[in-house]
Amino acid sequence: MDDVIIIGAGPAGSTAARLLSQRGKHVRVLEKSAFPRKKPCGGAITSRALPLLPQSFQNHVLSAPVFWTFRGRKGARTIPTSRPFCYTVDRTNFDAWLAVEAERSGAKIVFGTTVTAFAFDGEEYLVKTSQGYYRSRYLIGADGAKGISAKYFGLSRAHNGAALETEIPLALAKDDMNRVEIDVSRYPWGYAWVIPHGSTANIGIGSFKAGKLPSLKHLLQDYMKRAVPGLGTAPILAHPLPYRTHFSPLAIHHGLLIGDAAGLMDGFSAEGIYSALYSAHVAAEVINAACENKTSTDPYNTLIRERLWSQLKPALKMSRLFYPLAGFWADWFLKHTQLLEEYLALTQGDSTYDRLLAKTQNTLLSQLHFRSLAR
Ligand SMILES: Cc1cc2nc3c(=O)[nH]c(=O)nc-3n(C[C@H](O)[C@H](O)[C@H](O)COP(=O)(O)OP(=O)(O)OC[C@H]3O[C@@H](n4cnc5c(N)ncnc54)[C@H](O)[C@@H]3O)c2cc1C
């Protein structure tokens, strides 16, 4: 019997596997795909996530953007940063590398094995897969937005937005190779992006309220025509964006959820890799202690609420403030570039959504005050 079984070898699952194996736990990861596999993703990892990754991460970086172009209805502004605000990766290689790092630490990864059900008998989990049964004392659900873990743990599922992306070969000018573009001008509850990946660019569109859009695919094709004139057709991939509107327990008995399986995506930016890595670190800490003391995973609920939900909740507030009036706020942010700078500081770990929210409200209040004084 294993100490811990982890369902899914995405960034969340492989990170938890690496950390628990490093602490001497017997860890098995069950992954339905054969690696390397493609995961639809822009592959932009904010700089604040760097301490959560193994040191050799830099060998897998395609570009290190220091320019951020923010596009609204009335134009665009490009903000430079003195150090990269994100690092871009090819998710196929990045995920394969994280899995190898987990194996190097001693974790066993069984690829091509789909978990179809599991049950807890009060002492251990019995996990049913396409290849047979496995047993463990602890279980981590890291099976992403389309996973089954939340259902079998009996924990609440997240809301789903949707995103589409495509990867195109693009001979970018030197500055553009380190420039991320975000367009918030016409995509309800979301935005379109161009993210440099070395000799290619990732172009995509995401929306937290996908049902409200006439067709994400047409919007993406339209954006691609404007962003890269003369571009032919390219294969487009779609995937859900799982996010929570309220905190609810993510751990039960000897099990817990991490990453997209837990719906821990940032509800404003749709950044999910940082939360996947962060929750994997917290999960490893909790399960390591629980294994030693034969206790439940309950402390994970408090720790995630205090350390991560405390960041995600104000992100959601920002989302509820920004997206219903995205046209207005986009123009406002273009006029008040200190707000764009504050967001970039957040991606670098030097600010918070609470500060961004307060600054956004203060710019508005001071403008209203100025106008009433001028009357
Ligand atoms: C189009 C798009 C663009 C995005 N761009 C960005 C970005 O630029 N930056 C960013 O930070 N985030 C981005 N995200 C979000 C990011 O991709 C996710 O948050 C991240 O992949 C979550 O990692 P994870 O390990 O939790 O899940 P995943 O990466 O989804 O991994 C889950 C793994 O579980 C496996 N699995 C699923 N079910 C089973 C099963 N039953 N049995 C066994 N294995 C199973 C899957 O095969 C998969 O390997 C984007 C999302 C989308 C859709």
TrEMBL record:
Transmembrane segments: none
Top-level taxon of origin: Bacteria
One Pfam family hit: FAD_binding_3
GO MF: FAD binding; oxidoreductase activity, acting on the CH-CH group of donors, NAD or NADP as acceptor
FAD-binding domain residues: 3-162
Classification via NCBIfam families: GG-red-SF
Name of the molecule in the record: Geranylgeranyl reductase
